[in-house]
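Example 3.2
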Amino acid sequence: MRSPLAALARRLGRLGLTLWLVFSGVFVALAYVPNPHKLRAAYAPRLFAGLYRQPRFAAQNEPLLAQYGDWLLRVLTLDLGQLGFGGRTVVVRELVVEAVTVTLIYLVPALAVAIVLGTLIQLLAVAVERGDASAKTKLLGAAAISVPVFLVAYVLQVYLPVLVIDASGEIVDMGYDEAVSPFSPVNLRAAIWPGVTMGLYLFAIQLRVAGTDLEQYANEPFVKTARAKGVGLLGICRHVFPHSAARLLTLLSSEMLGVVLVGLYAVEWVTETPGFGTLTIDAAGSRAPGLIFAVVLLPVLAVTVVNALQDVYYSVIDPRVEGDGS
C-alpha cells in the first residue's frame, strides 16, 4: 500500500508539470507566431481598448530563453502586465480578478442548483418501480444538451425581462453596468440572464451524467428489497446516494469542465456579461501576453486541481478504491 503523503506528493508534482507544459506551449506559440494585429485591428475587444501590436511576443533584442525565464517568474508572481482600458491603464491581474468575480456571481448558484436538482431527479427515477425511468430522464438530459446554449440565451432575452417586470411591478434594466461594483443591485439583477441560461445548461449536463451513473442501481437487489418493504422514495434515495456520492459530486467539475467552459464563453458573449468567458475571447483577439497566460492557465489550474483532489480522495481517503501503483 502506498504512503498517503507519497500519493499526495505525486499528484502535486503532476499538477506542477501540467501547468509548466501549458505555460511553455503558450510561450512558444506567442514567441514564433506573427501577430495578426501588427498592420490592422482585426478585432475590437469589448473589455479594453488596447491591442498588442508588436509583431511577435518575443522582443528581437533579447534572448528567447531570458524572456522565458522572465515571463515564468512574472506568472508565478502574478505580475501579468498592464492594458489600455478606456483611456486609462489597468493591471491585468485586477482585470482577471474582476472578470472571474462577475462569472462566479451567477455561475456558483447555477451550478449548485443544477447539481442538486439533476441528481435528485435521477435518484427519484431510480427509486420508482419503473426500471426505465432513469433511462428516460437520462435521454431527456442528452436531448437538452444538444440544444445550443446560445439559442437558450436568445430565447430568454425575449421572455426573461417580461417575467422580471411582472415580478417587480416595474420596468427594469437587465443590462450590466461596468461603472459600478459587480455586487451592486443593478449588476446582480443583470446576472439573472446568464445565471438562468447556465443553470438550464448545467442542469441538462448533470441530468445526463447522473443518469449514466445511477441507472445501474435501478434493478439492484437492495433497491428491489427496499421497494418490497414499502420504503418511500426518499428512503430509497438515501440508500442509493452513498454508492455514487463521490462520483456525482466530482463528475461535473472535472470531466465536464471543458463543456461547461464552452457554454460559458457562448453565454457571456450573447448576454454581454463582462466575465471570464468574454475576457477569454478578448484575450484571443488582442494577443496581450499576460492576459493570454491568465485565461489559459486558470482553466488548466482548475481542471488539474479538481482532478488531483479527486484522485487524492479515491486513493487516500476512500479505502474502497485501490491505487493504480503509478
